[in-house]
Amino acid sequence: MTRHASAVATMVSPPPKVALTIAGTDSGGGAGVAADLRTFSALGVFGTLVVTAVTAQNTLGVRDFLAIAPEMVAAQLDAVLSDMPVRAAKTGMLATPGTVRLLASRGAAGQLPPLVVDPVLVTSSGRPMFSGDDVAGAYRDLFACATVVTPNLPEAALLTGRALADLEAIEAAARELQALGPQLVIVKGGRRRGIEAVDVAFDGRCVTLLRAPWIDTANVHGSGCTLSAAIAANLAFGLEPLEAALEAKQFVTRAIRGGSQWRLGAGHGPLDQLGAAGQQARTD
């Protein structure tokens, strides 16, 4: 008895777009590379990573951390970029001034993909993460080769020396930081409790207010990571910086709303990035 196998045509799907996070770990899973990779996956992007620090952390805060030597950061970066077609990258906690300078040097040499810099300079309690070296100067060099920069209010205040008490002052800070070189600066105003969560964006030509309803929840751990990762994912799909930021703002709002009633941990809980994906994940 002869069996005839029928030919089955198989469709090979194109590979996904690739993005890179350069950040620290969060053992509680709410922020850092964990939040970044969830965001990349939710938005249909394949995530790669360079770890800059390992933290012992939960929803109540960071208990301890171990910085990765800049040489190992460089080795991870070379391994990823030499092999994967990375279309956009983001930074989070860089842990040491040496790592900031390393990335600034690579960026100045044109060795990095379009870059979103989330300058993690201040802890959630308001304490500066660095001391000694001129970290603000190193970050300014990194901003010069960035596509988008996303400081929060304490970070923007530290970088500019301004008291950011109102939208006019926040706009002035955004203009000052954008003059350093990035295409777009977004000063995140989510810490200014109110009816809306308003971020101030400046692209060198005009100011755009990124508005979203204020969601009354303590579960906002990783919101800054999620915003910068979502912007990077959108850049990987070819969106212009402001469009990428506007879509990322909507994504973060959905993620906060989705996790707003969760009870995970005793402190500031995480966002629901995966639940926020649904209708806006991209496949092109």
Detail the topology: elements first, then pairings.
Blueprint: E1 18-23, H1 32-42, E2 46-51, E3 53-58, E4 61-67, H2 70-81, E5 86-91, H3 97-108, E6 115-117, H4 135-143, E7 148-149, H5 153-160, H6 167-178, E8 184-187, E9 196-202, E10 207-213, H7 223-236, H8 241-259, H9 273-277
Parallel strand pairs: 1-2, 1-5, 5-6, 6-7, 7-8
Antiparallel strand pairs: 3-4, 8-9, 9-10
Helix pairs in contact: 1-7, 3-4, 5-6, 7-8
Quick tags:
284 residues, alpha/beta, 9 helices, 8-stranded mixed sheet, UDP-N-acetylmuramoyl-L-alanine:D-glutamate ligase, single chain
Low-confidence stretches: 1-8
Largest sheet: 8 strands, mixed
Domains (count) = 1
CATH architecture, by name, is 3-Layer(aba) Sandwich
- Which class do the helix and strand fractions yield? alpha/beta
| CATH H-tier superfamily | Ribokinase
Which CATH class applies here?
A: Alpha Beta
What is the averaged pLDDT score?
A: 90
Strand content: 15-25%
Q: Which topology does CATH recognise?
A: UDP-N-acetylmuramoyl-L-alanine:D-glutamate ligase
How many whole angstroms does the radius of gyration measure?
Answer: 19 Å
